[in-house]
UniProtKB/TrEMBL annotation:
Any GO MF annotation of the entry: glycerophosphodiester phosphodiesterase activity
Organism listed in the record: Cytobacillus purgationiresistens
Residue span(s) of domain GP-PDE: 31-269
Protein name (record): Glycerophosphoryl diester phosphodiesterase
SUPFAM superfamilies, alphabetized: PLC-like phosphodiesterases
Keywords per UniProt: Hydrolase
Pfam families noted in UniProt: GDPD
EC number(s) per entry: 3.1.4.46
Keyword Transmembrane belongs to the record: no
Domain of life: Bacteria
UniProt cross-references to PANTHER family, sorted A to Z: GLYCEROPHOSPHODIESTER PHOSPHODIESTERASE, GLYCEROPHOSPHORYL DIESTER PHOSPHODIESTERASE
Length: 270
């Protein structure tokens, strides 16, 4: 606890200075390529296969979802149940991690991935931390009581010199959950996911709470992004999956694009 308090005191001002800086008018927006649940268009989502493929395709960040098991282990899975992405049924929180490992998390996508399993978050962290950025999303934090503290405890184990303030980002639709995360570990940037129209006053209010404001791609306009940047925040937009969607937003002043289809970026490069 003493170490955590020391880190909180020493890094809060640094976080504000680095991550909440007004963008200059001539800022070159070279947006980050963010792999949604890994390379979810090519491999079973939120698996090692998907994350490895995303890195091979040049992703700058892996977007992933975390939830708690019955024995309070953080696992990487999107849904509150295992029905859609494994050959099992039931709620994630009703299984221990060991029990989850009995289920196949790849065959639903293709027999090629038959032996994939639901990953443990700390294993994902160990495998990818030095290779790619991590955009970590709390899924249903109200059903995963204490997940913010668990994540902070896992991240605080990292040596201090490994903290890159833009290398690990935590996001959620739940602002209260993000505030709890910030209280536990303020040096990690947090981002609020948005899927409804924003007013200027809301953007100003959010700028005092988060470092990223991440809207759904279909609501994004240059005016909205300018308002977000004017208040010192960054913006990752989600989830752009077709050439039509990509062509609409690629010229906007975006900090990052979340996608299932990383080939969209290769088309742009070509």
């Amino acid at each position: 606890m003493k170490l955590l308090k020391t880190l909180m005191a020493s890094t809060t001002s640094k976080l504000s200075a680095i991550t909440k800086t007004k963008q200059p008018d001539n800022h070159p927006y070279l947006f980050k390529k963010i792999a949604h649940r890994g390379a979810a268009g090519y491999c079973p989502e939120n698996t090692f296969a998907a994350f490895d493929q995303a890195i091979a395709m040049g992703a700058d960040y892996l977007e992933l979802d975390i939830q708690l098991t019955k024995d309070k282990q953080m696992v990487v899975i999107h849904d509150p149940t295992i029905d859609r992405t494994t050959n099992g049924k039931g709620r994630v929180k009703d299984y221990t991690f060991a029990e989850l490992q009995k289920f196949d998390a790849g065959s639903w996508f293709s027999q090629e991935f038959k032996n994939e399993r639901v990953p443990l978050f700390k294993d994902v962290l160990a495998r990818y931390l030095h290779r790619v950025g991590l955009l970590i999303e709390f899924k249903k934090p109200s059903s995963n009581e204490g997940i913010e503290k668990k994540l902070a405890e896992e991240l605080i184990k990292l040596p201090l010199d490994q903290f890159d303030l833009q290398h690990i980002i935590v996001q959620s639709f739940d602002l209260e959950s993000l505030m709890r995360m910030h209280a536990h570990l303020p040096q990690i940037p947090i981002g609020l996911l948005i899927n409804y129209p924003l007013h200027k006053q809301e953007i100003i209010r959010f700028s005092n709470q988060v470092q990223y404001l991440n809207p759904k791609w279909s609501m994004v306009t240059p005016k909205l992004l300018k308002a977000i940047h004017d208040e010192g925040m960054h913006s990752f937009i989600w989830t752009v999956n077709t050439p039509r969607e990509f062509n609409k937003v690629k010229g906007y002043p975006i900090d990052g694009i979340v996608t299932n289809d990383l080939d969209l970026f290769q088309q742009e490069k070509g």
